[in-house]
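Dear V.,

Thank you for sending over the compound details. I've combined the ligand you provided, flavin-adenine dinucleotide, with the protein sequence from our construct and run the structure prediction for the complex. I'm sharing the raw inputs here so there's no ambiguity about protonation or stereochemistry in the SMILES, which I know was a concern on your side last time.
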Amino acid sequence: MKLTSSLVWLRRDLRVFDHVALQQALLASEKVYCVFIYDTTILDTLPRRDRRVDFIHASIAEVAAELEQLGGHLIVRHGDPVEQIPALAAELGVQAVFCNHDYEPQAMARDATVDSALQAAGRKFYSYKDQVIFERSEVLSQTGGVFSVFTPYKNAWLKKLAADLSVLAPYNIEPHAARLAPPPSPAPALPTLADLGFEPSNLAELKIPTGMSGAAQLFEDFLTRISDYNVARDFPSVKGPSYLSIHFRFGTLSVRHMVRTVLDLQERGVGGEGAAVWLSELIWREFYAMILYHHPHVVGASFKPAYDAIEWETGPEADEAFAAWCEGRTGYPLVDAAMLQLNQTGYMHNRLRMVTACFLIKDLGIDWRRGEAYFALHLNDFDLASNNGGWQWASSSGCDAQPYFRIFNPVTQSEKFDGEGKFIRRYLPQLKELSKKEIHAPWLAPRMLAPDYWPPVVMHDEARKLTLERYEVVKKPAA
Ligand SMILES: Cc1cc2nc3c(=O)[nH]c(=O)nc-3n(C[C@H](O)[C@H](O)[C@H](O)COP(=O)(O)OP(=O)(O)OC[C@H]3O[C@@H](n4cnc5c(N)ncnc54)[C@H](O)[C@@H]3O)c2cc1C
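Below is the predicted structure of the protein with flavin-adenine dinucleotide bound, written out as structure tokens.
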């Protein structure tokens, strides 16, 4: 295939290195334009201050600068991609549009519409695997079935990788950069946040590193402690995890590079159990992407249909309990501190995502979809597949989920994973006078040291019994 000119459409792959669609376009075309579209069908639904929009905005500035360094240019548009992409392709007179796969049902529908519009105008649409190592049906069971349990999926994933390490090879851009279309003269300025109708969030104040350079900086820092990851990752007051999830979400890093680095460490005999466990987490990410691809009904419904028969709490009392959970005033310090971490920073530690999700579902009896939607609005790293997988895990309705009768006790979780109460004190300074024994269940403290803290919204032991009754329905055979 030799094309006169083509257009690369960046979406959740905001980088200019090891980029499949960009490299393929450069190899196939004499001239390559690049575009990013601020998608109004997504942006119009968001509050006017949104850390993710800030993150994208800063990351796009870096992509534009990097492309310019290479002699190219980033076209930036604001609108509905379904209209914008075919219109821009016509305006530039390109023969093809290149992009990387997106596995979310809405994104796939969008891409199909763009593809049809381009085809109708005699143009091609090429899309590639880029955001995962293995996608769709690439990892199947020995009998050709889709996995619904993680461990066998992971084993098959690792086996497939070991059989062909070439899937990790980088897709270099620089050697082909001379084919990037140069900037127009004068080059238009990038839109400001205000042009997009947004106000700055507290992203800069939080010092969350953005763009390709931010991802590289975080990864470099993480590599110095990856060997401790298997232990440190469970304690929210410890700098244990990588904090790279927002970068995985927006593709400011290359997953191939991440996996290559881990394998290199393992080959050199460094990284230990920490590197192996971290690799497992990257495989969880691909597992959930694969589940969403094969079972799109999980958006809005339980993976296991029997769980849709559960009757959740509704009405004013449930609404008030939900508001208490959202605002971090359930009276359970670890749950409240975690929700405040989410509200104030857009990040929540993985252990706490599990604890807060279980608390909402199994202590408050509230439909997991309400929690899922709240996380979707507030998480910087919100990813439909991982978020849905995490919530269905907690509600026991998903694949390889926690059995429904295993119910986290929010107090013992707190004692175990924030024993000293360090994380709790960071977000709930009104509890700072409580001892490390008292801080996990302040209502039991003999002294009234925290008068401005909330009483518990439910008693865990009673809630647990109600939940076991509520879940009885999943044991009934379908009518
Ligand atoms: C209820 C619930 C909701 C969640 N929602 C999201 C979400 O919207 N977006 C998201 O990226 N992760 C989600 N997770 C998974 C996990 O909590 C985050 O990926 C992790 O906390 C991000 O922090 P990190 O980058 O420091 O992770 P690290 O521990 O450094 O892990 C490295 C990377 O592996 C991936 N990963 C780690 N754990 C998981 C997991 N359990 N499932 C899927 N991928 C994983 C992420 O891409 C992460 O960045 C959710 C988990 C739960 C229980």
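A first observation: Residues 233, 241-245, 248-249, 281-282, 284-285, 288, 350, 353-354, 357, 375, 379, 381-383, 386-387, 389-391, 394 surround flavin-adenine dinucleotide (CB under 6 Å).

Warm regards,
I. M.
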